[in-house]
Amino acid sequence: MEAIAELTTRDSIPAEDTWNLDDLYASGETWQADFKSLESQLPQYASFQGTLGESAGKLKACLDFDIAFSRTLEKVYTFAHLRNDEDKTNSHHLGNYETVTRLLTQTQQARSFINVEIMAIPEETMQGLLDHPELELYKLYLERQLRYRKHTLSKKEEALMAASSEMARAPQNAFDMLDNADLKLGTVKDEQGKEIAITQGNLQSLLQKYDRRVRRETFETFYQAYENHKFTYSTLLSASIKKDMFYAQARNYPSVREMNLFTENIPAEVYDNLIETVHGHLEPLHQYFDIRQRVLELDELHVYDTSVPLVKDLEWNMPYEEAVAKICEALKPLGSDYVGIAKEGLLDARWVDRYENKGKRSGAYSSGCYDSNPFILTNYLDDNINSVYTLAHEAGHSMHSYFSNKDQPYIYADYTIFVAEVASTFNEALLTRYFLSQDISRDMRIYLICREIDNFRGTLIRQTMFAEFEHQIYQAAESGQPMTVDAFQDIYRKLLETYFGDGVVLDPCLSLECFRIPHFYFGFYVYKYATGISAAYALADKVLNGGDRELNDYLNFLKSGGSQYPIDLLKGAGVDMSSPKPIETALGKFRELVNELQDLTA
């Protein structure tokens, strides 16, 4: 038996394949200096207590200090969390991350009086302060804070709530370490008999193998690891729910969902419209599964059969540099400035940490701060088309951050999660359009259409199922139901049956999937992927079929950061997400793709 392929260690990765964090901090010493400076400044918060309602000047002085402190803290935190994600087994970086996390908690405690005092200012006095020229920059910022009047507690209570934040992150942190560092996912023999270590990074590639034995054994071995730890995962997820319920109840919200929707001023009907609309358009998904079973010539279709390319012997191979070139070609409709900045960042400026290494965080994200480049973590694989789309997706996030930071002041630069997925999915839509516009074979067209269908399936339909799962488990917990292993799996199993229909065999282990989704630790996050892809495709149609006005509306949306509420930002760009129409439009596009695949494979 051949030796198991080991993951590359971090110190073996060439520098050009890693992100360059020197613009954040050139050395650990400079990071430490900023950290120490923040520690020494922290007591200054106390000097502002009891003064905020006295005058516009005193309120401004406190806000100026708070914003400057937060800006540096964000920079210090960003560097620590990026270094920690490079290698979760590096105890030095983990120590720095835990240290700065404690400082975050201490800062929340030290500044907890600010909102309380702002809420205590009489409305008439506050209106006068809002109209004062000294507070012009902070007017919108303060108006947003004042929405929280009935959800703000006393000074002592707010200090206690802030002190609890580090402890409250325990379920998420424990899940993160278990899933990324401690969990042993086992091995599988590939088509040549070589034993391969299954990782979070290569799972999808293994499930795309033509050898069904490899797919089945990968699937079963992978989920056996979760079976072995299901009680731990269940306990962590239940603890995370209880944590969210505690904060919702303490802050006088009717439910955890309403608490999370309130933050971005999202109407509840946006969430409900999404689930209801997707439920009414599941038939094309079931048709797609029927096509898969027919083309693959299978007696029955399992979930591990739903990712393998329908076209045999059409291997995908695209090195990172080539992927960047293709992405930049695809993004040309967004203008030369956009493309030039993206190309520089993805290559020479080294925004991207490209490849998987031992201990590295799984998945992908874009992250940074107001005073840094927007960095991208990915685990790029040459043989997986999803890696190219992931890179384009994260580049969309990064370009959104780049333009927001460039055009907005610090307090209004940070856009909310609701609109965050729009720019990323927009880029994916352009990439598909570019690939399909090339002189390609029928087989390649089938391959790409399947990939686009799978993108809709994964981002719109699957994330809606996740959103419905979240809604149901929180409803169950809030009604007093104990959230046990069986409770989670029963709810998830019923949803699998609804969404997959009768045409797919649902192996019992699939109900364990609910324990491996990291986004469930962020509370009502996943629905934004589904609304994001719907808005993105609506905007892409406008830009591609429009002129300068439509393009400028979209670019202005990217530049607007968080200067308006997300629903209003999207309305300004031309999409109304309070209506089910964008979701129906996206699902209509999904149906068209399935029908084209039906014709191509007939």
Itemize the secondary structure elements and their pairings.
Layout: H1 28-41, H2 56-86, H3 91-110, H4 112-120, H5 123-130, H6 139-146, H7 155-163, H8 165-168, H9 170-182, E1 187-189, E2 195-197, H10 203-206, H11 212-228, H12 230-250, H13 256-263, H14 268-279, H15 283-296, E3 301-302, H16 320-330, H17 336-346, E4 352-353, E5 365-367, E6 375-377, H18 385-407, H19 410-413, H20 417-437, H21 442-478, H22 485-500, E7 504-505, H23 527-545, H24 548-559, H25 566-573, H26 581-601
Parallel strand pairs: 3-7, 4-6
Antiparallel strand pairs: 1-2, 5-6
Helix pairs in contact: 1-2, 2-3, 3-7, 4-7, 9-12, 14-21, 15-26, 16-17, 16-20, 18-20, 20-23, 21-22, 21-23, 21-26, 23-24, 23-26, 24-25
List descriptors.
mainly alpha; globular; Butyryl-CoA Dehydrogenase, subunit A, domain 3; two-stranded antiparallel sheet; three-stranded mixed sheet; 602 residues
Q: Average pLDDT across residues?
A: 94
From the N-terminal CA to the C-terminal CA, the straight-line distance is: 43 Å
Number of strands: 7
How is the largest sheet built, in terms of strand order? 4-6-5
| Rough outline | globular
Structural class: mainly alpha
Number of helical segments?
A: 26
Output the CATH class name of the domain at 10-168. Mainly Alpha
Radius of gyration, taken over Cα atoms and rounded to an integer in Å: 25 Å
Main beta sheet: 3 strands, mixed
CATH architecture of the domain at 10-168: Up-down Bundle
- CATH-level-4 superfamily name of the domain at 10-168: Oligopeptidase f, N-terminal domain
CATH-defined topology of the domain at 10-168? Butyryl-CoA Dehydrogenase, subunit A, domain 3
β content, as a range? under 5%
Helix share bin: 55-70%
The low-confidence runs, each spanning 5 or more residues with pLDDT under 50, are: none
